[in-house]
Write a structure and sequence with these properties.
There is one protein chain. 0% of the residues lie in helices and 58% in strands. A hairpin with a 4-residue loop joins strand 7 and strand 8. The strands form two sheets. Strands 2, 4, 5, 6, 9, 10 and 11 form a seven-stranded mixed β-sheet that branches. With 116 residues, it is mainly beta. The protein contains no helices and eleven strands.
Length: 116
């Protein structure tokens, strides 16, 4: 499975960005986003299952919205009210279980920079 992410960029604090990620195959599991800021560990931002359940990091609840388009094998992250601390490389993630084994895939990362 290949994941192609896009949509990062430079934005002022309070602004908005939308990240997109397209998978090369149907994902019957979860798709979402992690991020990694300089000097920090990669952390979960938001995930969405193929059934529509979502999970958000506390730091982005109420500001970010994740959505999936299963017909396009895609996941999106609408980011509003961006803060400088949201600055990071954002990675698309897809994972699913098959016969008890977890498979996990990562996109190439897209830089999000929020200026104060």
């Amino acid at each position: 499975v290949q994941l192609q992410a896009s949509g990062g960029g430079l934005v002022q604090a309070g602004g908005s960005l939308t990240l997109s990620c397209a998978a090369s195959k149907i994902i019957f599991g979860s798709m979402g986003w992690y991020r990694q800021a300089p000097g920090k560990q990669r952390e979960l931002v938001a995930m969405a299952t193929s059934g529509g359940s979502t999970n958000y990091a506390d730091s982005v609840k109420g500001r970010f919205t994740i959505s999936r388009d299963n017909a396009k094998n895609a996941v999106y992250l609408q980011m509003n009210s961006l803060k400088p601390e949201d600055t990071a490389v954002y990675y698309c993630n897809a994972n699913f279980f098959l016969l008890g084994q977890k498979s996990e895939y990562w996109g190439q990362g897209t830089q999000v920079t929020v200026s104060s």
